[in-house]
Structures are given as structure tokens and as C-alpha cells.
Amino acid sequence: MLQQFLHDFGYFALFLGTFFEGETILVLAGFLAFRGYMDINLVVVVAFFGSYAGDQLWYFLGRKHGRKLLARKPRWQMMGDRALEHLRKHPDIWVLSFRFVYGLRTVMPVAIGLSGYPPGRYLLLNGIGAAVWASALAAAAYHFGAVLEGMLGSVKKYELWVLGALLILGLVLWLRRRFKNARLAKKIYADEQAELAQTAEAKTPVE
Predict the structure, then answer these.
(1) What is the number of other CB atoms lying within 10 angstroms of the CB of residue 102?
(2) What is the model's pTM?
(3) What is the pLDDT of residues 72-125, one digit of tens each?
(4) What angle do CA 168, 172, 177 make, to 5 degrees?
(5) Of the candidates 150, 148, 57, 145, which has an alpha carbon nearest to the alpha carbon of residue 105?
(6) d(CA 189, CA 78)
(7) What region, left, alpha or beta, does residue 116 occupy, with left being phi > 0 and alpha being psi -120 to 50 degrees?
(8) Domain limits of the chain?
């Protein structure tokens, strides 16, 4: 049943997952490739195209609507400003490596587009970065399965537990990011309200 489901929808789900953010789903796919449910070469190729396409889209959106996009979320705004500082110092290095920094996958391409980084150069270096990321993460997950098998013997009887643990880890990281964003938004809102109150107080005429 699992094999048939993955055959029908697995690669499409991997493409969508890597298009939007995708670390967890790529790790799952790498482990499933070790178990024989997916092909590791196809996993790398699909993850590459998903990541590459997603980051190209965010880059072009950043060129046209960068500030507006970053302003939608307080954390994006703060991270975008930080990303722009990094890009001014080492632009090519960040284009190649931002996928390996957790939490920057969406913000960094927007910031790169906003910074005026050349489209042709981004097309090339983003492709190299996507290929390295897809290969490295898929291979790490594949060999993680091999290490588990070396420690536990046959992984087959534990595979559902391992898959469940990976899914829970991905969910925990996602929830952690959501709560962090909510706390930051609340703090920024409180600071803005305090600043408005101080401004209003300063403008109030003294009797």
C-alpha cells in the first residue's frame, strides 16, 4: 500500500515540498529511497527541480515586490534586513549556501532579488546551490538509513517508527517557527503601540 501510494504521489509531493521549503520531505524521501520505496537518483533530480523552481520564483518576486513581501511578516522584515547585510559582504557565497541555513529558504531569495543581484548570475549559482543541497541532504538521509540498519539489524520492522519520528520532528520545527513568528509579531505590535502613545503624548499641549 505504501509503495503504491509513493509510486503514484511520492515524487509529486516531493516536488511540491521542495518548491515551498522542503528539508523534512527531502529527508523522508532519502530514507524511503534507502528502504527501496523510491529511487534515490529520482529523489535528487525532483528535489533539485523543486528547490530551483521555488527559489527562482521568490527571487523574481523579490525583484518586483521585495519590500512589500518582507513587510507582510515581522520576522521576514527583520530577517530580510539581516540577509541584505550578509549579501552586501559576500553575495555569491550566500546565493550558493542559503539553503543550508535553517529558516532562510524563503526570505533569502526575496532579499537577493531586492538587492539587485544579476538575474543571469543568480540563475547559474542558484542551480549549483540547489544541486549541492538536493544531493547532500538526500545522500545524508539515505546513509542515515544504512547506519540505522547497522545498529538495529533489519530496519523494516522499525521503518514506520522512523518515518513517524521524522514527521514529528518536521512538525515540531514548523510549530516552533510559527510560535516564534507569533511572539515576534506581538512584540513588534506592542513596541509600535508604545511608540504611537509616546508620540501622541509628546504632541499633547501642556496646559
Answers:
(1) 9
(2) 0.70
(3) 776 777 777 778 887 888 889 989 988 887 667 778 888 898 888 999 999 999
(4) 150
(5) 57
(6) 14
(7) left
(8) 2-168
